[in-house]
Amino acid sequence: MKQLLFVIAFAAIAQGASAQTVDVGYPPPKSPFRDLEYHQEFTVFGGYFAAASDPASAAPKSAPMEGIRYEVTVGGPAQIVARFARVNSQRNVIDATAPAASRILRSESWPLYIVDAGMSLNLTGQRTFHGVVPVIYTGVGLVSDLDKKETIDPFNIGTNFAFSFAGGLRVVPGGRFQIRADVGTYLYQIKYPTGYYVITSDKTSVVPAAQAKNSWKRNGAFTLGASYLLFR
Asked: Which residues of the chain have pLDDT under 70?
């Protein structure tokens, strides 16, 4: 009799455990997760470049930006990413020999070009959660104003290394299209010319003597893009 009661009790416990397993799982049609079917994407994006503060008021300013992005899944949740962006910026042309009141001569179109490559990581793995994939990205590349120069103002960006960091959301409703939004940072160095430190007739200079000639600037970027997905 004891053996029969033991068998009945064991069967009841096993059945309860099985029922709990069914309760916490999701039938495939009702699961909030969906596998990502495509392994490459081409994105066209636009947004806004938020330039860092500049004590000289000479560096390219905040402006709209646009660009393209291509990424390829390389295994698990990771992608290799390449990006190109153009910032439709302007900057003040400065006469460093003039007093502060008349130092800024004009504002001139001064576009920036940024190219970088790096790694992106899907935080939900190779699948969506309710059609959304949170992502993080880090990369390295170049920022350039194509060595544009002004005769009277020696300042320019030239071509410098840039480090980039970003986070965002991919919205994947199904099919070959998705929408993505990203918030990130471009970190690069600018260099002030020696003339910016010369004291003028009003006892001022473009930048104070304590300002380093080489300065790292952290510039924000906010973009919204549309992607076409390729290759299952």
From this structure: 1-29
